[in-house]
Design a protein that fits this description.
It is built from seven helices and 14 strands. With 441 residues, the protein is α+β, with helices and mostly antiparallel strands. Strand 8 and strand 9 form a beta hairpin. The longest helix has 127 residues.
Length: 441
């Protein structure tokens, strides 16, 4: 049966593809190639397959070309959108920077005004003391002059009573020299009396003028005190709020800075203390309170420099991951993220967020190229996945110093900075410090 089926198939092929011969003739010989029906069918099928494959490949290429064009257009649109977003962020950053500079200028102006007011207050205090001393001298002189005048009047009255008018006349006739002496003495006494009265009047006028001047100086001192007190409130309250928002106990922080303070002059001291057991005057008490507030403001500024109240990156970056439990980008599981991530361009500058000492500057498993800085108050900051480190272990850095370049070393899925803040070895949310500082700096 198979034979018959093969014969029928061969007959069908012979009908459509009869056997053909291709003759190859040379000078000496003639040869031919026999093309059977099966060979012709195979050749036709091969040609059909090649033609079909060519058509399909051409169609695929055309579709891919069209799709690539769409992808390129979409990429251009995405790039334009991203560039527009970068421009907006850059504008916002510049605005924030201008606001920060303006705030710093206002703060410096307030400090300058406080310094000028303090100098003026001390000068006013010295002037007031001089005026009080002058008043005491004038009053002492006035009392002595009035006493001398009264004594002269008493002596004159005694002489008149003892001598009498008739006796004086007889005495004058008997002794003209004595009479002349008495007359001159009385004239001098009267002249001294008039001079004493004039001096007393001048002293009283000077006293009134000095009292008026002291009153005006007191009013001026009250105005200076009021402005200083307002300036202290405006300057100290934002710093105190910044520390409290960061969860830092201000009393302990200020006391720690006070113990370690080593700047020129040391903390401000009260302008006067009584050495005679007397109570301080209201102005002295008020001035001492202001000096204590100025000392506290100075300590707050020192403490703010030692705590990480700053952003580690100033360029245009994206905040990609916060502090807390998150989905691990490598394994997909849930795990704790002890810092915050900022994504940016390769080589973006990274800055120290506070004054401190570098304790690690090199490779660490998982973190890649890592920089650790130890600050005051038991605080430590970490800057991970850097492409380049620009500090050394033991180096002392200040806030704003360039310490590394952003990269993707270690356990990382892309270029970014992993930033941590640890207090006594325990990780805390870095954004607490960054957001607290935005209201002040």
């Amino acid at each position: 049966m198979r034979t018959r089926l093969a014969i029928k198939l061969h007959s069908l092929l012979e009908r459509h593809f009869p056997e053909r011969r291709v003759f190859l003739k040379s000078d000496n010989d003639t040869r031919f190639i026999r093309l059977s029906s099966e060979t012709q069918v195979a050749a036709v099928a091969g040609v059909a397959v090649i033609v079909g494959w060519t058509a399909v490949a051409t169609a695929i290429l055309l579709m891919d070309s069209i799709g690539s064009g769409n992808f390129r257009e979409q990429a251009k649109r995405d790039q334009a959108t991203y560039q527009e977003r970068l421009n907006i962020l850059s504008t916002e950053r510049d605005a924030r920077a201008q606001e920060a500079l303006a705030a710093q200028d206002r703060f410096n102006a307030a400090l300058k005004q406080i310094s000028a007011m303090q100098s003026e207050l001390l000068a006013s205090e010295n002037r007031r003391r001089e005026l009080e001393t002058g008043i005491e001298v004038i009053q002492t002189t006035l009392r002595a002059t009035m006493k001398q005048r009264e004594e002269a009047r008493t002596e004159l009255a005694d002489v008149q009573v003892e001598a009498g008018d008739g006796d004086m006349y007889v005495t004058a006739l008997a002794s003209p020299e004595q009479m002349n002496f008495m007359t001159e003495a009385l004239a001098r006494t009267a002249q001294e009396r008039d001079q004493i009265a004039a001096d007393a009047k001048d002293a009283l006028d000077q006293r009134d003028e000095l009292e008026l001047e002291i009153q005006l100086m007191q009013e001026r001192s009250d105005e200076i005190f009021r402005q200083l007190e307002e300036a202290m409130v405006i300057s100290v309250e934002p710093l105190d709020k910044m520390f409290r928002q960061a969860g830092m106990p201000t009393d302990r922080i200020i006391e720690e800075v006070r113990r370690g303070y080593s700047g020129m002059g040391g903390p401000l001291t009260p302008i006067s203390f009584s050495t005679r057991g007397e109570d301080l005057t209201p102005d002295e008490i008020r001035a001492n309170v202001l000096l204590q507030q100025m000392d506290q403001l100075n300590l707050y500024r020192l403490a703010a420099e030692k705590a990480p109240f700053a952003n580690p990156v100033n360029s245009v970056v994206r905040f990609t991951s916060g502090f807390g439990t998150r989905r691990d980008p490598k394994t997909g599981g849930r795990r704790m993220h002890n810092g915050v991530d900022f994504a940016g361009a390769q080589g973006t500058d990274i800055f120290a967020t506070a004054d401190g000492v570098v304790t690690h500057a090199g490779w660490q498993s998982g973190f890649g190229r890592l920089v650790k800085i130890r600050h005051a108050f038991g605080i430590e900051t970490l800057y991970a996945h850097n492409t380049k480190i620009r500090v050394k272990v033991g180096q002392r850095v200040s806030r704003g110093d360039h310490i590394a370049d952003m990269g993707s070393t270690g356990r990382s899925t892309g270029t970014h900075l992993h930033y941590e803040v640890r207090v006594n070895g325990k990780p805390v949310n870095p954004m607490t410090y960054i957001k607290a500082a935005r209201n002040v700096f």
